[in-house]
Amino acid sequence: MRRALSTWDRRAFLAVAGRHWPGADRALPRLSRCADHGLLWFGLAAGAAATGGRPARRAALRGIASLAVASATVNTLGKRSVRRVRPVLDVVPLVRRLARQPATTSFPSGHSASAVAFAAGVALENRGWGLALAPIAAAVCFSRVYTGVHYPGDVLAGAALGAGAAFAVRGLAPTRAQLAPPARPRADAPALPGGAGLVVVTNSTSGQRVGARPDAADEVRAALPLAEVVESGPDAAGRTGEPLDKALERAANRAFELGGALGVFGGDGSVSAAAATARRYGLPLAVLPGGTLNHFAYDLGIETVADACRAVESGEAVAVDLVRMGDHGWFLNTFSIGAYPELVRVRERWAPRIGAWPAGVLAAVEVLRTAGPARIEVDGRPRELWMLFAGNCTYRGLGLTPLRRHDLADGVLDVRTVSGGRLARTRLLLAALTGDLKHSPVLRSARLRHLRIDGVEPGTHLAYDGEVAHAPRSLTLAKENEALVVYRLPTTP
């Protein structure tokens, strides 16, 4: 069997070498060189992460992780276990040969393993993007035989290893489709085919700068042709439009008359304002992600406007918790006092000039250098805090890097504080670097039903759901369980 396979492998190699493929003599060697050291895949991942939003970043990260596992396996096990000599180049036309020939052994093909690992990793996160990458990955695999540096068997073995690496990564880090559906419990909401009965408010100021989405209303109308759209904020020409609060009030009145639902196209701040209005009118809320981060929409499993349309048309919905900030409104995601509100304030000042991500990095450096602790009373106890964070429901992630919630109705506040004593920030950084955040003495966490904050000094800022405001002298954060019904992406059986 081994001899028969080896004979077939060599005959297949000779067949490829002896056949002329129009247009391939220049293209395939260049493609093969581009894939050296994974540069082609790293470039595609970087481009997707920079321009495609969170779903693209997640798919790119999974592709790179799969590539890393495949590459490590090839170089530590594959190449050392089977020391196969590379093909003789005499039968390969000179125009096809690579300028620099590989010095390692032939089996398995590392380029093929990396190509298939990256494409398969991306496909496990997003099938459409994976299919788009498949022809590129296949061309890289074929180029290794075409240029004479591998036998077909080397390429097939590398491809199988790459696919296995992608599935191994999925076993360690489940894809979004494998995770349990977020939020609970299910709630009743009307199914609205085509958006009939849905009144959507679009906020043109959502995103990184004013007017970032001048086509928001058109995008909603294209996706839900029967929905009514109320526009707020400046229009594409810069003319002042209706304020968000008034637009939400008008839309909620109309949705109540129709017996339908309120919708909002915007970021977390817009969604938070819409949630308060929907709760007051007893309306279900449809969230169409149109902001920079869209945390709440992602926790519902909604990543695109198309996802929101599927949710609205299916009528699948869940009840979620809200948090009341005394007489100062509500929040859906997070609340904080201390360094983080200052970071948001600085970032928003710089973002229109240099972009959101660079502004966030520079703002973090500035705040870490200049911010001082806030002196407040927490549940009657005087505290000096570098930061106080409260999340609506329990967030995954240790320390001050909360990630995602799997339950949006667990009835608790996720409270985390960083003490403002001597060297507090340095001690917290050391704990993060050593992986011992959980036991850091400056970091405390608790699960509470309500939180009382008093003695806030004038000029102190607070942040909630991405919005920054002046903090009142005192306020109480109190959970309201299952206070709002929201549409959720339908689950597959």
Describe the structure.
The protein is α+β, with helices and mostly antiparallel strands and 493 residues long. The protein contains 15 helices and 16 strands. It has helices spanning 2-17, 24-34, 39-51, 53-81, 110-125, 127-146, 152-172, 216-223, 244-258, 268-281, 295-299, 305-314, 339-354, 356-370, 424-433; strands at 186-187, 198-203, 228-232, 261-266, 285-289, 317-325, 330-331, 334-338, 374-378, 381-392, 413-419, 443-448, 450-454, 461-464, 467-470, 475-487. The strands form 2 sheets. Strands 1, 6, 7, 8, 9, 10, 11, 12, 13, 14, 15 and 16 form a 12-stranded antiparallel β-sheet that branches. Strands 3-2-4-5 form a 4-stranded parallel β-sheet, sandwiched between helices. α8 (216-223) links the parallel β2 (198-203) and β3. It is elongated, with a radius of gyration of 27 Å. It starts with a helix and ends in a 6-residue tail after the last strand. Mean pLDDT is 82; it is low at 208-214 and 432-437.
The proportion of residues in beta strands is 15-25%
Count of distinct strands: 16
In which range does the helix fraction lie?
40-55%
- Gyration radius, to the nearest Å? 27 Å
- For the termini, the CA-CA separation is 44 Å
Number of helices: 15
Secondary structure class reads alpha+beta
Summarize the biggest pleated sheet.
12 strands, antiparallel
Report mean pLDDT, rounded to a whole number: 82
Per the principal axes of the C-alpha atoms, what is the gross shape?
elongated
The parts where pLDDT drops under 50 for at least 5 residues are 208-214, 432-437
